[in-house]
Specification:
Layout lengths: L2 E5 L3 E3 L4 E8 L7 E7 L6 E6 L5 E3 L7 E6 L4 E6 L8 E9 L3 E4 L3 E6 L1
Parallel strand pairs: 2-11
Antiparallel strand pairs: 1-3, 3-8, 4-5, 4-9, 5-6, 7-8, 9-10, 9-11
């Protein structure tokens, strides 16, 4: 059973930066696509960025060129460097891993609040 823990959320001023971390355990024999999602108050959870099992990276248009996703396989860790933060980036950020064979798992989320 995969267990994911996010950290790094905080309150920052617009224009600031944050780095989110997601550490995982229990992956077993499966390889997973790894992604970040976010959910703002009153809105549906939305995709932010992904590294797939082939290393292909994608970003939502709203964060492209501001956020950078990367991973450290040796540490079973996924990161999201967020720059030039805007109030619309305020949300709970979730880490997700998914595998066709082994299913998908979510972390518990970490709160990011950006003030203008």
């Amino acid at each position: 059973h995969v267990h994911l823990v996010e950290s790094g959320g905080a309150s920052v001023m617009a224009g600031g930066s944050l780095k989110l971390s997601c550490t995982g355990s229990g992956y077993g024999p499966c390889t997973y696509n790894m992604s970040w999602w976010r959910q703002a108050p009153g809105k549906e959870r939305e995709f932010v960025s992904e590294i797939d099992i082939d290393g292909v990276i994608t970003y939502a248009d709203s964060v492209n060129e501001r956020f950078v996703i990367y991973q450290d396989s040796a540490k079973n860790a996924l990161y999201l460097q967020m720059n030039s933060l805007e109030p619309d980036d305020t949300a709970v950020y979730y880490c997700k891993v998914d595998s066709y064979r082994c299913g998908y798992y979510w972390g518990q989320g970490t709160q990011v609040t950006v003030s203008s």
